[in-house]
Write a structure and sequence with these properties.
- By secondary structure, the chain is an alpha+beta fold.
- It is built from 6 helices and 5 strands.
- Helix 5 packs across helix 6.
- It is rod-shaped and about 135 Å long.
- The N and C termini lie far apart (100 Å).
Length: 186
């Protein structure tokens, strides 16, 4: 086939030849760009997740000021219920006040010194201060004392509680021995 016959064939079938050339070009384009599809899907997935996160943040931020105020108020309430580690007199005064309110007699009251923190341990805002309390009174008074300590103005955890009679007489005086922890700030 000569050049003139080829040119005549191309002119006669111009649409078919153009379609074949475009199809071949598209085939090469798809072949070379095919490896970009998985990467584009990863980018799309990452951006979709980021968009969902931003949408959730925008939705959750509508009550952010009220929630922040509630947290601040709760922190103030918690701080008000804490004892202070270094204020021994004020810490013991709490128990003396309970003694007078319940008409019991504290025969022994001491704050146990804090154990040193191990090296490398993370510093915490709160510690448990241990107290050893021994009180005398009748059953009703001692139970009232125990309830006031447990539901009192400070966060309390009773470690041990022993109740024993002072004499063999029925209905006589009892002795309550408590080891308890009060939550404190340093």
């Amino acid at each position: 086939m000569s050049n003139e016959e080829l040119i005549a064939f191309l002119k006669k079938n111009a649409i078919s030849v153009a379609c074949v050339i475009v199809s071949i070009a598209l085939g090469f384009g798809i072949y070379y760009r095919n490896d970009l599809l998985p990467e584009a899907e990863k980018v799309l997935s990452a951006r979709t997740q980021q968009g969902e996160l931003l949408a959730a943040n925008i939705e959750d931020s509508s009550q952010l000021k009220e929630q922040h105020a509630a947290i601040i108020a709760s922190n103030e309430l918690i701080s008000a219920r804490m004892i202070r580690v270094g204020q021994l007199a004020e810490n013991l005064q709490y128990f003396y006040r309970l003694e007078s309110e319940t008409n019991t007699k504290l025969t022994s009251l001491r704050q146990v010194p804090l154990a040193p923190q191990p090296k490398g341990a993370p510093k915490t805002n709160f510690v448990a201060v241990t107290f050893s309390v021994t009180a005398q009174g009748d059953y009703k008074q001692l139970v009232d004392l125990l309830r006031r300590i447990e539901a009192g103005e400070h966060y309390c955890r009773v470690i041990t509680c022993n109740l024993k009679p002072l004499s063999d007489m029925r209905g006589g005086q009892l002795q309550l021995t408590l080891n308890l922890e009060l939550l404190a700030t340093q």
